[in-house]
Amino acid sequence: MKNVKILGTGCRNCQTTRNLVEEVAKAKGVIIELEKVEKIEDIMRYRILATPGVVIDGVVVHSGGIPERGTVERWFE
Amino acid sequence: MLRGLPIVLIIWVLAYTHLTELADFSIALLHLERTSAFGEAVYFFCYEVPKVLLLLIGIVFIMGIIQTFFAPERTRALLAGRRLGIGNLMAASLGIVTPFCSCSAVPLFIGFVTAGVPLGVTFSFLISAPMVNEVALALLLGLFGWKVAVLYLGMGLIIAIVAGSIIGMLRMEQYLEDWVRAIHFGNVATQDYTNFIWSQRIAAGIKHVREIVGRVWLYVVIGVGLGAIIHGYVPEDFMAALMGRDVWWAVPMAVILGVPMYSNAAGIIPIVEALIGKGAALGTTLAFMMSVIALSAPELLILRKVLKWPLIATFVGVVATGILLVGYVFNWVL
């Protein structure tokens, strides 16, 4: 099981990213534990410059803008 | 995807060079005459909507490609440790080409300040990035022509540079929230953003169009629609008494009204353009636009998480003064 954190203060791009991640993980048959990190102090621990950010098992894999579907698919290979 | 690009380009050019024919055709199809107020309003709508949307698509596409050269991490590296002056100039310019969404203002602010970008330089970036954006430029270009678009760009840059320099000179670092000052980024591992291949850059341009135009097209249609109604029905000189150049209090009023409004450029510019046709002064309307876009109450509330009140008040004061001056100078010169 992968732990996925979506970093973002709750803007629309963050919501879209979250839905995309959920959808792709489901399609790939990967079980994930999805967490939303919304407090700015907590987001900044991951040292990203732009939201939304995506953290998988403690590693920042994406920051800024909605990721491409192809990119998300590679995370769950 | 790349193979389709020349075809799209040809369609774009053909459509853009035949806007009048398109509008004439639409009017004829609806059996309307331009001599009636309704006909004129419909004609205005059928001409301006395709024109503005085409410009928007073109400019947003090009900006999407340019932005692949300027990741925020790269901009930060360029700005770290810069002196006041040159740093503010660079920050304001980079604010135009670095991808930025207002919901990222806080992480970006913290990321910059804690990695050694001076406070004043960071502010120049934060003022320029939302104010001088591709949507505003595309709409100004479409509805007002290139002169006003260039003026807006120049004035936005000057406000960002001067306001950032003043904040820098005031040395207000102690008014950052304590938890922000406690963060030390040190050396951040940066990805290499320079090794995009061209097909990826073009793909980024297309993605940018889908995201931005997908989000604002409806505002453009509604904004131009309201503008068309104003064009067709509001009497000439209606706005002269309220927003004309001889009304001294119009500029400060425009700035104050702009702060609580949180609209994007796409919705506000078409309406503003129509008001100018009814006697509103250009400086007053520019001031209103800048205030709506650069100073918004929700964004100030977000910034409050990282800035203490004195710094927020200084930021608003300096930027508002800059916008006021722009408004008065334009009313006076033009």
First and last CA, distance of chain B: 46 Å
CATH class assignment of chain A: Alpha Beta
Gyration radius from CA atoms of chain A, angstroms: 11 Å
- Content-based structural category of chain A: alpha+beta
Strand count of chain B: 0
Q: What is the H-and-E element order of chain B?
A: HHHHHHHHHHHHHHHHH
Residue stretches of chain A low in confidence (pLDDT < 50, at least 5 long) are none
Helix content of chain B: over 70%
Number of helices of chain B: 17
Write the layout of secondary structure elements.
The complex is a heterodimer of chains A (77) and B (334).
Chain A: E1 2-7, H1 12-28, E2 32-37, H2 40-44, E3 53-56, E4 59-63, H3 69-75
Parallel strand pairs in A: 1-2
Antiparallel strand pairs in A: 1-3, 3-4
Chain B: H1 5-17, H2 19-29, H3 37-67, H4 72-79, H5 86-97, H6 105-114, H7 119-131, H8 134-144, H9 146-169, H10 178-182, H11 198-233, H12 240-243, H13 250-258, H14 265-277, H15 282-294, H16 297-303, H17 309-333
Active site (chain A): 11 (nucleophile), 14 (nucleophile)
InterPro entries (chain A): Thioredoxin-like_fold, Thioredoxin-like_sf, THIRX-like_proc
Domain Thioredoxin-like fold (chain A): 3-76
List keywords for this structure.
heterodimer, A: alpha+beta, Glutaredoxin, 4-stranded mixed β-sheet, 4 strands, 27% strand, B: 334 residues, mainly alpha, 17 helices, 73% helix, redox-active center (chain A), Thioredoxin family protein (chain A), THIRX-like_proc (chain A)
Walkthrough of the structure:
The complex is a heterodimer of chains A (77) and B (334). With 77 residues, chain A is of the alpha+beta class. Chain A has a single domain (2-75), classed as Glutaredoxin (3-Layer(aba) Sandwich). Chain A contains three helices and four strands; from the N terminus they run E-H-E-H-E-E-H. Chain A has a four-stranded mixed beta sheet with strand order 2-1-3-4. The longest helix of chain A has 17 residues, at 12-28. Chain A is globular. The model of chain A has no long low-confidence stretch (mean pLDDT 86). With 334 residues, chain B is mainly alpha-helical. Helices cover 73% and strands 0% of the residues of chain B. The longest helix of chain B has 36 residues, at 198-233. Chain B is globular and about 70 Å long. Chain B starts with a helix and ends with a helix. Chains A and B meet through helix 2 of A and helix 4 and helix 6 of B.
